[in-house]
Design goal:
The protein is 16% helix and 35% strand. It has 320 residues and is of the alpha+beta class. The structure holds zinc ion.
C-alpha cells in the first residue's frame, strides 16, 4: 500500500428513474450521449440497467440507470450525490444554453469556483449541470443535434450533499487520495488526478440541502476509479484502515466493485477501469443488443417480453 495512491476521479454514477424511454430520450436524444450498454438489473431482471457515456463508455463518462415504473419518488438532499456535473468543450457553453432553450428545459446559471454552470433537472428530477473546460479529450460521438465539437466529454465532477462534510472530506483524501483544492463560499473542492470526473465539491452546510430520500430522481451511488485489480485491493485496505466497512470484491462483468457507505451517508463504490464495456460486444454495435449474463441467457425470451421496448432516437426538435 502506498500513500501516494490517488484516484483519477469518478468512474460512474448510478441513479433511479421511472421510465426507460424517457431516460433514453433525455440522455441520448437531448444530451447526445451514447447508450453504450443495455442490460438488466442482475438482482431484478424485470428492470433494465442502461449505461450512457462517450463513444466507448470510458470511465469518467458513464451514468447508469435503473428505470423502475411506479417506484417511490425520491428527494435530492443530504446523504446523496446532489448534482452530477457534465463537462463540455470551451466555447460550447452558449450552444448548450441554446439547446436547453430549444427543448424547453428550465435552467439556472450559477458560478462556483469561478466557473459558470448551467443547472437543470432530468425528467425524474435528477440534478444535472454543465460546465465548459479545456481539460478532457473531446468525445468522438455525435448524435441528433449535438455535433462532436460541442458534445459532452464526460463528467466534470459532482457536488456531494454530505450529512457530515468534514468526515466525507477525510474519506476523499485519506481513502481515495483526492487533494483538497480550496473553499469557495458554501463549498469545498477536492481534485482527483484525471482530466474527467476530477473536481468534487462538498456542500459545507448539510442543512441547506434538506433531507435526502432515496427513490427515483436521485443518485443511488457514485463510483470512483481504480486503475486495476491490484490498485482496487489496495483501496479496499485503505477503506478498512479508515474505519469503513467495504463489501468483498464483486464482479460486475464490466468492472470489479466494492461498496461502502461513507460517514456522510453517501454510498461510495470503487470500480476498476478494466475490462470495460467493449469486452462482450463490438465497439460498433455496443448498446444495441440486450446483454445478459450467462446465467440469465436461458431466459432471454421471457426477460425480453417483460421489458418495455426502447429505442435511441433523434428527437422531434432536432429533426427540422
Ligand atoms: Zn456502480
Amino acid at each position: 500500500m502506498t500513500t501516494e495512491q490517488r484516484t483519477a476521479g469518478i468512474h460512474h454514477v448510478t441513479a433511479f428513474v421511472q421510465d426507460a424511454q424517457r431516460t433514453v430520450d433525455f440522455y441520448s436524444g437531448f444530451l447526445g450521449l451514447r447508450m453504450v450498454k443495455k442490460t438488466i438489473n442482475f438482482d431484478a431482471p424485470e428492470v433494465y440497467h442502461l449505461y450512457f457515456g462517450n463513444e466507448g463508455g470510458s470511465p469518467g463518462t458513464i451514468i447508469t440507470f435503473f428505470p423502475w415504473k411506479g417506484s417511490r419518488h425520491g428527494r435530492v438532499g443530504s446523504g446523496q450525490v446532489g448534482i452530477t456535473a457534465y463537462v463540455v468543450p470551451t466555447g460550447a457553453f452558449e450552444f448548450w444554453r441554446e439547446r436547453l432553450n430549444k427543448f424547453g428545459v428550465a435552467y439556472t446559471e450559477v458560478t462556483r469556483f469561478g466557473e459558470q454552470y448551467l443547472q437543470f433537472e432530468d425528467p425524474d428530477g435528477l440534478r444535472v449541470e454543465i460546465v465548459a473546460r479545456e481539460e478532457g479529450p473531446l468525445s468522438k460521438w455525435t448524435f441528433g443535434g449535438v455535433p462532436a465539437d460541442k458534445a459532452i466529454k464526460g463528467f466534470g465532477g459532482a457536488v456531494l450533499f454530505s450529512g457530515a462534510p468534514s468526515k466525507t472530506g477525510n474519506v476523499l483524501e485519506q481513502v481515495l487520495g483526492f487533494e483538497l483544492e480550496r473553499e469557495d463560499g458554501e463549498y469545498r473542492r477536492y481534485r482527483g488526478t484525471g482530466d474527467l470526473g476530477n473536481k468534487i465539491d462538498i456542500l459545507l452546510d448539510p442543512a441547506s440541502a434538506g433531507n435526502g430520500v432515496g427513490g427515483s430522481g436521485t443518485v443511488h451511488h457514485i463510483a470512483w476509479r481504480a486503475k486495476d485489480d491490484v490498485d482496487h485491493v489496495a483501496y479496499r485496505s485503505r477503506a478498512l484502515n479508515n474505519g469503513m466497512q467495504p463489501t468483498p470484491v464483486i464482479d460486475r462483468n464490466y468492472f470489479n466493485a466494492i461498496y461502502f457507505r461513507e460517514p456522510g451517508g453517501i454510498l461510495f463504490e470503487i470500480a476498476t477501469d478494466p475490462p470495460g464495456f467493449a469486452h462482450d460486444e463490438s465497439f460498433e454495435t455496443m448498446g444495441e443488443k440486450l446483454m445478459l449474463p450467462s446465467w440469465f441467457e436461458p431466459h432471454r425470451e421471457a426477460i425480453t417480453a417483460g421489458l418495455p421496448p426502447i429505442e435511441v432516437r433523434v428527437l422531434e426538435a432536432d429533426q427540422s
